[in-house]
Specification:
The protein is mainly β. It has a single domain, classed as HesB-like domain (Hypothetical Protein Aq_1857, Chain: A, Sandwich). The protein contains 1 helix and 7 strands; from the N terminus they run E-H-E-E-E-E-E-E. The chain has one helix at 7-16, and strands at 3-5, 24-31, 41-47, 53-59, 62-67, 79-84, 89-92. The chain has a 4-stranded mixed sheet with strand order 3-2-5-4, with no helix packed on it. The chain is globular and about 30 Å long.
Length: 93
């Protein structure tokens, strides 16, 4: 699995989560919502300490990660996070 967070998406996270240098952001699996990856599940996001990392990407000294326990969700898929200008929010593709 590979991950990519576009610069506009990074700026959205930075503003919405009030991120600063050294912060860590977790992508996690949650029940419900809409996803093109796994039916009946979707991706949540929270600012929390990085523990038990299964995958990570660092941008401007901010670490984005997925815990090992949530890696099943991304089997055979990459994670790309981009900013949707029409809805002024992020989307996962």
């Amino acid at each position: 699995m590979q991950s990519d967070i576009t610069q506009p998406a990074f700026q959205w996270f930075k503003k919405e989560l009030r991120l600063k240098t050294g912060d860590t952001v977790r992508f996690f699996v949650r029940l419900g919502g809409h996803s093109t990856i796994q039916q009946s599940f979707s991706i949540g996001v929270t600012k929390e300490p990085a523990l038990d990392i299964g995958m990570s990407v660092e941008i401007n000294d901010i670490l984005f990660f997925v815990k090992k326990e949530d890696m099943w969700y991304f089997i055979d898929n990459d994670l790309k996070v981009k900013y949707n200008r029409d809805y002024e929010t992020i989307e996962y593709v």
